[in-house]
Structures are given as C-alpha cells and as structure tokens.
Amino acid sequence: MKIERTKKGTEIVSKLDGKNYRVTAVFCDEAGKVTEATAAEMIEREGEEVELSTEHIVQITEANALAFRITKDAKPETVVTGFSVIDGNLYQDGRQIEQGQLKVLSVLSSHIGAVLLAVESGDNVALMTYEPDRDYFRKIFVDLSEVPEVLKVSGETCLMAIEHTKEIEAEKDGQKEKKTVFAGTTLILYQNGNHSATVHETSAKYGLTEALYTESPFGLDAWFPCDAVAGEDADPVAYKVRRWTRFALYDAITCKDFVEMNGALHATWSHAYKCYVLHNDDRLYVDGIGLDIKSPLVAKIGDKILIDVNKKEGVYRLTFSDSDYQFVTMVSRKTADRGLIVTIE
C-alpha cells in the first residue's frame, strides 16, 4: 500500500501474518505528507464491538508499507478544498494530480472526501469524482452534451442544469434563415453519499436563476418557475400563467408536482398539516387540504408558518406564526352572491 493513503481509522491487513490492524495515529513531515503511522491489532469477539490491542502494535513507514494492504479506508470527515483546473490538469493547493489520459474541464463542487469534476469524454462530457484520500477517480455519469451549470450545492448534493438549443430554418422578409431556439432542459442531481447522479429531461424552459429552495422533513426541494415550453421547430410556446414545478432532491431528482401562480413564489412547510403552503402576492394555496384563496391580503402572510386551520359553517380561519410566536389569522368566508370575503385579524 501507499503510506500516503493511511489516516487515523484506516483498517489494514498484514501480508506477513494475516492479522488485521487499525491505524491509531499518523505522522507527517513539514509539507503535510504522511511519513509514518501507528496501528493496533483489531480483536474481534462475537457479539461485541472490535477492540484494539494495547500489546500488538506495528509501526508503518514508507520502507515497510508494502507489507500491508488497506482493507477499509477511514471515513472522510471534512469537505475537500483547494482544487483548481489549469489547461485540463487538476491541482490541489498548487500540486498537480497525476491523472493519466483524463482531461479535466471544470471543478463543479466539493464535498466530504470528494470533488466533483467535469471531464472530457470523446465529444461529450462525463461527471467524475476525485477522492484525494484514496487518490482515486470515479466515473459517475457519462454522455452529457456540455459542462453543466451548477445551480445549488447543499451538503452532499449538487444540482446542475444544461439548457439545450437547436438550429431551425425560419422565414423572415420572404427569405429563409437559420435561427437558434430553445430545445429543452436537462437537470442533473449528484449525491456524494452514494456516488451517483440522476437526470431529468424536460421540454420546459425554467427560470433557473429564479429557483426557490425549501426544506421539508424529507429533504431539499427545488421550485423552478416555467413560463414556456420548447416549440416544435419554433420559438418556445408561452404559458398563460407561470407554472412552478417542484423537484424533490432526495435520493434522486424527482418531479413531484406543480402549481400555477404568477410572480414570485413563497413556499413554507407546515409541520402541523405536513404539507407545503404556497402563495404569491394575491393567491394562497394549501397543498394538504386543497384550499385556494385569492386576495391581495395574502401578501401580509410573508414567510410565516401555518399552524392552525379551523373550518366552521363555510368559514376558514388560518393562523400563521413567525419564530417569535407573532400570529396572523386570515379569515376566508364563502358567500353565495359575492364569492370569497377575506379579512386579516
């Protein structure tokens, strides 16, 4: 094994006697390079946790590292840093990484133990990770048309997108000319925890920079506004009302649902009713109970959380609270002759 790969917690086996050891300490030179490690024999007892021997200790150096083999890498604990790309070569803190025939195009995101890269793959682009502790490149996904744009990095996830275009022939002033039009969107979600990427292809033209990100007990959600979809050899076809589409960014990217609502979207999770409450400046929609209220008073809710819904004789009373327990109650009363009457208490 390479002495550089050892770190505290690494499990190794001796090629001499077959005994298993766990590294308990590492020692580095002034440049931070590992030069020596101490490892204790692992003692396994049935039904009990592994114990480390206090008597059987080995010292591992560059001179005798060949006599050991790593069986389990220590779990990384920190986000890797210091990566850059110069002329297709990957560097960490100014040191060039040995990468063979790989041509790195871009560093996309950094995570615990690994950095996500865009790498040239023939005429296409592949997603790969580099794990510095193992000095290992891992192929994640191939056949992207170009380097994706990073939209959101949150913990161990990275959300990316590619907007596609195509050339069509269009007639202008009686003459045919080539024109570039929108053709579709690819959304890519990388999950560092299981070294995987999932993809969603759509004809929707999203406002990628206007996306809203929210947290629920299930994880991170992304809400993308959509005003148009790709046309058939034509310019995008516009929607009459803006469509906000929710994508769950959990184990895989999943299109969950959408709501038609113009303008900016506010989305909060109601723990009391286990659903999202959505509103703009003049419309409120409570997903869990299908309640839809249209009134300019909706703007007064802001980012408060729905904590109580009371319905009696056709009157809804919705109470919202901020983190300081300051309440706002919206009352919606349905009438036969004038629709909804909405007030704020």
What would you say this structure looks like, in words?
This protein has about 350 residues and is an all-beta fold. It is built from no helices and 29 strands. The strands form 7 sheets. Strands 4-3-2-1-5 form a 5-stranded antiparallel beta sheet, with no helix packed on it. Strands 17, 18, 19, 20 and 21 form a 5-stranded antiparallel beta sheet that branches. It is flat. The relative contact order is 0.07.
**Broad shape:** flat
Helix content: under 10%
Q: What's the number of extended β-strand segments?
A: 29
Radius of gyration: 28 Å
Structural class: mainly beta
Order of strands, widest sheet: 4-3-2-1-5
The helix/strand order is EEEEEEEEEEEEEEEEEEEEEEEEEEEEE
Provide the low-confidence segments as ranges: none
Provide the domain count.
4
Strand content: over 45%
For the terminal residues, how far apart are their CA atoms? 71 Å
Describe the sheet with the most strands. 5 strands, antiparallel
